Amino acid sequence: MKVMIVGSGAREHAIAEALCGAPDEDVELYAFLRNRNPGLIRLSEDYEVGDPTDVDAVARAAVRWGVDLAVIGPEDPLAEGVADRLEEEGIPTFGPKRGPARIEWDKGFARRLMREHGIEAYPEFGVFEDPDEACEFIDELGKPVAVKPAGLTGGKGVKVVGEHLRNLDEAKEYVREIFEREIGGLPRVVIEERCVGEEYTIQVYTDGRKVLPTPAVQDHPHAYEGDEGPITGGMGSYSCPDGLLPFLSREEYEESVRILERTVEAIRKETGEPYRGVLYGQFMLTADGPVVIEFNCRYGDPEAMNILPIAEGDLVTLHASIAEGSMEGDVEFLERATVCKYVVPEGYPESSEGEGEPIEVDEECIHRLNAIPYYASVNLEEDGTITMTSSRAVAIVGIGERLEEAEEAAERAIRECVSGERIRHRSDIGKPETVRKRVRRMERIRGQGGS
Ligand code: GLY
């Protein structure tokens, strides 16, 4: 089967490895890339470097290659309607059309959908197209809030009082800035009561009716050790052999999956179109139970790297049948722990320190240590060297029977097999002490009780 992957991060490298290594179908891979990702280039019969949000360029490449299936990695081409455009060309696409993808590209739509369909896992909120009304709502609430531009901001637009904003006055200033600078590109802002708890991710495969859940994952968005510093695209993540997390019970996991199932149904009813792809739920476990922080319309990054290496079975059939509209394929997840750590250029995400500098990745050494490398925003140069951009460079995923083993594998692989003068990573991700701190924090929150 000829498969086109769109996107060129570690997430897309992981998707491509999973599809090319699946036993159910021989895959001939083609890639539409933003950067010259060496992992994807190596796997592909042919590739094109371009802008994945240019849906006509993506469609032209797909037609030229004669692909049978397109798999879309990032959200921005989906928000631009790449799945709709590919459908016009008769190409089945894994990734929702623009209508259902609205669950990510319009946070106001997502919250109203939950309220209108009785999916009661949201904080008190308001959606505003007028900055004065948004500021009045902040005053009426009179408690710490999260201020969210409604549109896409690459995961960096949400600001929370007590974290990025000192008080409600700063929250109101940020509201005005969102409208003045058109942050997120939509004339809307969502104001929510701040939630307190532990965040986690659950991703489900869906054809718009049936749902296949995957193991829970916890991401680490802060740039520096100890959850300090600015929010990034995600510095790393872990998952556990039982598919749960040390602070998340089986009942809470199942409740979260039910929320996603009901959301899939609500999207179909609301937009009149089935959601085809991965629906990503970012949850917070609060004293009152799971609350949705936001939805994404694609695999998570780094969370894709936790679930794909332990997925076994008919992965090509799964992706292709979802794209065709009727999910099939026998896929299971091994009872293994995974720890993903991103190696990033020194200045990420605040400066370009390290951009253009070389990074060396000894893949054999990494595999010997029971870990897997997935290339991200790097470029394969003419002379075979790999240079960094200003974004994340390579994800290293350790796999083991236990979380400690997976963490040690990822950490050793980075220390012994990845080199560069201007690189760094968060060594604390997946370490027992980091995980224990989260469990203790959750216990304290539960002890304080809900509202
Ligand atoms: N892990 C955050 C994201 O995928 O958006």
Q: Explain this structure to me?
A:
The protein is of the alpha+beta class and 451 residues long. The protein is built from 15 helices and 27 strands. The strands form eight sheets. Strands 12, 15, 20, 22, 25 and 27 form a six-stranded antiparallel beta sheet that branches. A five-stranded parallel beta sheet has the order 3-2-1-4-5, sandwiched between helices. It has a four-stranded antiparallel beta sheet with strand order 6-9-7-8, sandwiched between helices. Helix 8 (131-141) packs antiparallel against helix 9 (168-181). 35% of the residues lie in helices and 27% in strands. Helix 2 links the parallel strand 2 (28-33) and strand 3. The protein has three domains: 2-100, Rossmann fold (3-Layer(aba) Sandwich), CATH 3.40.50.20; 124-193, ATP-grasp fold, A domain (Dna Ligase, domain 1, 2-Layer Sandwich); 198-435, ATP-grasp fold, B domain (D-amino Acid Aminotransferase, Chain A, domain 1, 2-Layer Sandwich). The chain is globular, with a radius of gyration of 21 Å. It binds glycine. Glycine binds next to loops.
Helical percentage: 25-40%
What is the name of the CATH topology of the largest domain? D-amino Acid Aminotransferase, Chain A, domain 1
Question: What CATH architecture of the largest domain would you give?
Answer: 2-Layer Sandwich
Q: Into which percentage range does the β-strand content fall?
A: 25-35%
Shape: globular
Spans of at least 5 consecutive residues with low confidence: none
Number of helices: 15
Structural class: alpha+beta
CATH secondary-structure class of the largest domain: Alpha Beta
Q: Characterize the biggest β-sheet.
A: 6 strands, antiparallel
The Cα radius of gyration reads: 21 Å
Strand count = 27
Number of domains: 3
Distance between the termini: 53 Å
Mean pLDDT: 97
CATH homologous superfamily placement of the largest domain = ATP-grasp fold, B domain
* Heterogens: glycine
